[in-house]
Design goal:
The chain has helices spanning 47-54, 94-105, 109-122, 138-150, 168-185, 196-202, 233-264; strands at residues 4-14, 20-31, 36-40, 62-67, 70-71, 79-82, 156-160, 189-193, 205-209, 216-221. By secondary structure, it is α/β, with parallel strands linked by helices. The N and C termini lie far apart (53 Å). 39% of the residues lie in helices and 23% in strands. The protein binds adenosine-5'-triphosphate and magnesium ion. Magnesium ion binds at residues 47-48, 84, 160. Magnesium ion (MG) binds at residues 47-48, 84, 160.
Length: 265
C-alpha cells in the first residue's frame, strides 16, 4: 500500500473579479514508504497549494488525501512541513525551536531532552543548541527546521522549496545532508522545487506539473544509484529531458498570454 495517495485533487481560489482561478486540476499520485518524490513546476503553478492540502492546512474543492490507505481530514498532523520561508522562532534557541512541537504535545521535559539531543545529532547541529536563529547560518537554520519537523516522527515530510534562497555551495551541501538524514531516518519525503538539477540529484521519482492550473504532465523514475554525480552523462540526460518538458510548457503559457492580449485589442 502506498504511504500517501493523492486522489483527483482540484482547487480554485476566488479572484478579485468575483470569479475563480483554478489552481489544481485533478491531481493524482502515490508515494511509497521511504521514497523521495520531487515535484517540479513553474513558479505560481500551485505547488504550495498542493502541499498545504496534503498537510491538512487547506481543504480541496474535490478529491482526497490518504495516508496508509486512510482518508485524512483538515487539521490532521501526520505530515511534517518545512516551509518555503524561514520559520524558526527568533526568540527561541536552536534547542527550544526543535523542542517546540514536543512541548505542544505535552511531552515531559526529560523525554524532550533525549529526543532533542538525538535530533541535534542526526541534523549535525550538536554544539549549536544554545544559539539563536540570528547566530546560525542559513544552511544551519534549514537543518534546524528539518530537525524540528523530524522530531515529531511524521508519516511524511514535505519540503516546500526548502533549499531555495541559499548560495549554490550551501545548497549542494544541504542536498547531501538531506540524503544523509533521510538515510538515517528512512523518512518518506515529498520535495517541491523549481530547480531541475536539485531534483535529479535527490529524487527517486520526479513529477512535473504544468502551468496553472497544475496537472501532472510528466513522470520520471530515477533509475540511478545514489549518491549521484551531478555532472555524469546520466544526470545530464535526465536534466535535458526535463528541461525540454518545462520549455514546451513555458512556450504554451506564452502563446496563451499572446492570444489573450490579441483578443483584448
Ligand atoms: N490564499 C490565496 N487566495 C487566492 N489566490 C491564491 C492564494 N494562495 C495562492 N494563490 C494563487 O494561487 C496560485 C498558486 O499559488 P501557489 O503558492 O500554490 O504556487 P507555487 O507553485 O507554490 O508558486 P511559487 O513557485 O512561486 O512558490 C498563484 O497564482 C497564487 O497567486
Ligand atoms: Mg510555493
Amino acid at each position: 500500500m502506498p504511504k500517501l495517495s493523492v486522489l483527483n485533487l482540484s482547487k480554485s481560489y476566488p479572484n478579485g473579479d468575483s470569479g475563480e482561478t483554478e489552481v489544481l486540476d485533478n491531481i493524482s499520485f502515490d508515494i511509497q514508504e521511504g521514497e523521495l518524490l520531487s515535484i517540479l513546476g513553474p513558479s505560481g503553478c500551485g505547488k504550495t497549494t498542493l502541499l498545504k492540502i496534503i498537510a491538512g492546512l487547506l481543504e480541496p474543492d474535490k478529491g482526497e488525501v490518504l495516508i496508509d490507505g486512510q482518508k485524512v481530514e483538515l487539521g490532521h498532523n501526520r505530515v511534517g512541513y518545512i516551509f518555503q520561508q524561514e520559520s524558526l522562532f527568533p526568540w527561541r534557541t536552536v534547542r527550544e525551536n526543535i523542542e517546540f512541537g514536543l512541548e505542544v504535545k505535552g511531552v515531559p521535559p526529560e523525554k524532550r531532552t533525549i529526543a532533542v539531543n538525538e535530533a541535534l545529532k542526526i541534523a549535525g547541529m550538536d554544539g549549536l543548541d544554545d544559539h539563536y536563529p540570528h547566530e546560525i547560518s542559513g544552511g544551519q537554520a534549514r537543518k534546524t527546521e528539518m530537525a524540528r519537523s523530524l522530531i515529531l516522527a511524521p508519516d511524511i515530510l514535505v519540503a516546500d522549496e526548502a533549499l531555495s534562497n541559499l548560495d549554490a555551495q550551501t545548497r549542494n551541501y544541504l542536498q547531501e545532508e538531506f540524503l544523509r538524514i533521510q538515510g538515517l531516518t528512512g523518512s518518506t519525503i515529498l520535495f517541491v522545487s523549481h530547480n531541475v538539477d536539485e531534483t535529479v540529484f535527490l529524487s527517486d521519482r520526479i513529477l512535473v506539473l504544468s502551468n496553472i492550473p497544475a496537472r501532472v504532465i510528466a513522470e520520471y523514475k530515477m533509475e540511478l544509484p545514489k549518491p549521484r554525480n551531478r555532472t555524469s552523462p546520466e544526470c545530464l540526460a535526465y536534466r535535458s529531458k526535463i528541461l525540454d518538458v518545462l520549455r514546451v510548457e513555458q512556450e504554451k503559457a506564452m502563446s496563451r498570454t499572446r492570444q489573450k492580449q490579441t483578443a483584448s485589442i
